[in-house]
Amino acid sequence: MAPTGARKGRLAIVAGGGFLPLYVAEAARAAGENPFILRLKNEADQQWQGFDSAVIGVGDMAGLSALLKANAIDRVVLSGGVKRRPAFGEIRANLKSLLKLPMAVKTLLAGGDDVVLKMVIGLIEAQGCHVIGAHEIAPDLLAETGPIGAVSPSADDWRDIARGAEAAEALGRLDVGQGAVAVGGRIVALEGVEGTDAMLERVAHLRAEKRISQHRKGVLVKLCKPQQDVRADLPSIGRSTIENARRAGLAGIAVEAGRALVIEREAVIKAANEAGLFVIGVDRGLARGTP
Known about the structure:
Low-confidence stretches: 1-5, 287-291
Largest sheet: 6 strands, mixed
Number of helices: 10
Strand content: 15-25%
Order of helices and strands: EHEEHEHHHEHEHEEHEEHEEHE
Structural class: alpha/beta
Helix content: 25-40%
Number of strands: 13
Shape: elongated
Distance between the termini: 38 Å
Radius of gyration: 20 Å
């Protein structure tokens, strides 16, 4: 049975960096789809043997339109990381996107990630396709409420979760990032364009310099932006998040249940258990206080 209801055409997966596009592709295939992979130039880093695929530039709307038409694609999933926005000279518009070009350029130059993604969704849907979320194809990736693994938060950890959730929500409203680190009730790091792993590396450096508490561990909290279109860029964690949280000396990680992805779930659980870290899915309201 199709994960998104009745199908008329083919599913395409726009693949950026990381493992998420591969997991989505495998889930789609298991559901009877034959996904076509649109590998973003200089971003996609997985091997795509066994899948039909093509390389496309991040700003190449004309090339995208041609590939969508040639492969009878009617649904598109955006998945994986994109480290760099296209420069003006890399944008190739077709007739359907030409009228939106001034708005698109302005958004690329000054808009936050969520605004940019909404613009990209609009440009793709102008080609006659429907954009759907990765979680619609691979719902098993969504975090559930409660601990994921053997370790649970302490009372002190819950206080840090509440504090970190406040910061992550405020940050999300500004369309800056999705994550925050709280240590002993103090916000010590906010996620920016560098991403979660780089933020955690910064926390580890601050810890080594003794600029944050050596006795209180702290928590990473990742929430979906309040205004975010859930069809793209849901908060996600994977094995690298666990390893970087361990290096940063944190007690664990809290993500928004139902609106965050746990990639490589079994590997994440194993790594977290071995490191003595908790990983927990929290409801947005629950994140503001102890259970």
